[in-house]
């Protein structure tokens, strides 16, 4: 017989002999003399199923130790597919943490708070005191024109004179039903307001120009008892609107002011580098008296609807207070206003004279500003014109 060797599937050699009928027969064990040179077990000692299981386990171990690189056409389409595998697994883990038992997304408390703030409805209505005194409107226009001469880009930030008002509260009204409720709240405030005013007129003296964070420029309200009355009036309105369910959350502290310009009206200015209004632009008006506004009515106005023909906001409802809006001013009031106008004119002339003196290196521009000695004459002329106006009204 002739000894024959041949390769096995797992790399081991098989030893056997060929019989007379040329049938290949494997032997279960080798002769001790023949086995002295090798101790490798025969392939037949390991059952076929066990060999298959061992191969599978080896493949699994290899897969765990080194990731399998997919060279299929689909995988070649993305250069970072294998790196994205880890990222996708990480994102899936994060998603699982945000999913509840039912499979629905569960937001954290911080996310809920952020969504609530984003979803909150912006105000679209407000209750205001309209500025009906032409003296105040004219003085505001004068300040705006002075600022625009120095910074023309602020033209779109100016509040038009016909829309001048003092805001008492803001709210969001989502339907016509809520608008009707707001009008009802305004009417229900009347008894409390009448008790607060006790038949006396509420007069608001406006004086001086200030700003909020250099983004909103306003005319301030002079100090006095009228401020306390105005704050109580605003509190009455807020309470009536809360009773109708038209105010949600906490209202900001009431700070009475008359806005004359604000940067939020012209958002493109930020891209142009104009993020703040320089207070020097209106520094000459910090002590200016603008006039007295008598509170004769309160208006419920829309921020979004088309304005009225006179330029004022679309008014849904108004509440008349006292009904003296067309009453002629008294002689004492006219004299007081005339005196303030004269003082303001003199102060403006002196300020302009000083500025031109500095600009011209000590020499004033006599063509632009009259000499200081002529100030008394101009004052006398203004007093004469004021007196003549008083006589004509009589």
Question: What does this protein structure show overall?
Answer:
There is one protein chain. The protein has helices at residues 48-65, 73-76, 81-97, 109-119, 134-150, 176-188, 190-197, 225-243, 268-271, 331-359, 375-393; strands at 3-7, 13-18, 24-26, 125-130, 165-171, 203-212, 216-221, 258-262, 289-294, 297-302, 315-320. Helix content is 40%, strand content 17%. It is built from eleven helices and eleven strands. Strands 5-4-10-11 form a four-stranded antiparallel sheet, covered by helices on one side. Helix 7 packs antiparallel against helix 8 and helix 10 packs antiparallel against helix 11. The longest helix has 29 residues, at 331-359. With 394 residues, it is α+β, with helices and mostly antiparallel strands.
Mean pLDDT metric: 74
Outline the low-pLDDT stretches.
1-44, 100-104, 323-328, 364-369, 378-382, 384-394
- The topology string of helices and strands comes to EEEHHHHEHEHHEEHEHEEEHH
What's the alpha carbon Rg, rounded to whole Å? 45 Å
């Amino acid at each position: 017989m002739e000894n024959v060797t041949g390769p096995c599937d797992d790399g081991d050699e098989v030893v056997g002999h060929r019989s007379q009928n040329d049938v290949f027969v494997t032997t279960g064990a080798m002769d001790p003399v023949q086995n002295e040179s090798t101790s490798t077990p025969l392939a037949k000692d390991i059952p076929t199923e066990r060999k298959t299981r061992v191969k599978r386990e080896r493949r699994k171990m290899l897969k765990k130790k080194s990731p399998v690189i997919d060279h299929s056409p689909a995988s070649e389409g993305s250069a970072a597919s294998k790196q994205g595998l880890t990222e996708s697994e990480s994102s899936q883990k994060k998603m699982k943490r945000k999913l509840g038992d039912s499979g629905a997304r569960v937001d954290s408390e911080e996310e809920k708070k952020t969504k609530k703030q984003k979803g909150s409805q912006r105000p679209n209505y407000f209750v205001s005191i309209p500025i009906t005194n032409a003296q105040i409107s004219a003085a505001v226009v004068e300040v705006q024109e002075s600022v625009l001469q120095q910074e023309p880009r602020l033209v779109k930030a100016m509040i038009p004179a016909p829309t001048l008002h003092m805001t008492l509260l803001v709210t969001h009204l989502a339907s016509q039903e809520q608008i009707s409720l707001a009008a009802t709240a305004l009417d229900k405030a009347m008894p409390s307001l009448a008790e607060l005013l006790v038949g006396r007129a509420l007069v608001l003296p406006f004086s001086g120009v200030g700003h909020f964070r250099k983004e909103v420029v306003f005319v301030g309200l002079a100090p006095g008892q009228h401020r306390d009355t105005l704050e109580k009036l605003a509190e009455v309105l807020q309470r009536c609107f809360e009773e109708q369910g038209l105010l949600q959350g906490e209202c900001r502290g009431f700070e009475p002011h008359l806005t004359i310009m604000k940067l939020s009206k012209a958002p493109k200015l930020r891209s142009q580098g104009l993020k703040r209004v320089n207070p020097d632009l209106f520094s000459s008006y910090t002590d200016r008296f603008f006039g007295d506004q008598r509170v004769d009515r309160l208006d419920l106005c829309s921020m979004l609807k088309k304005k009225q023909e006179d330029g004022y906001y679309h008014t849904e409802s108004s509440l008349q207070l006292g009904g003296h809006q067309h009453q002629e001013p008294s002689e004492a009031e006219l004299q007081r206003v005339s005196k303030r106008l004269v003082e303001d004119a003199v102060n403006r002339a002196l300020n302009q004279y000083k500025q031109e003196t500095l600009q011209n290196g000590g020499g004033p521009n006599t063509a632009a500003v009259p000499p200081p000695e002529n100030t008394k004459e101009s004052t006398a002329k203004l007093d004469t014109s004021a007196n003549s106006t008083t006589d004509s009204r009589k």
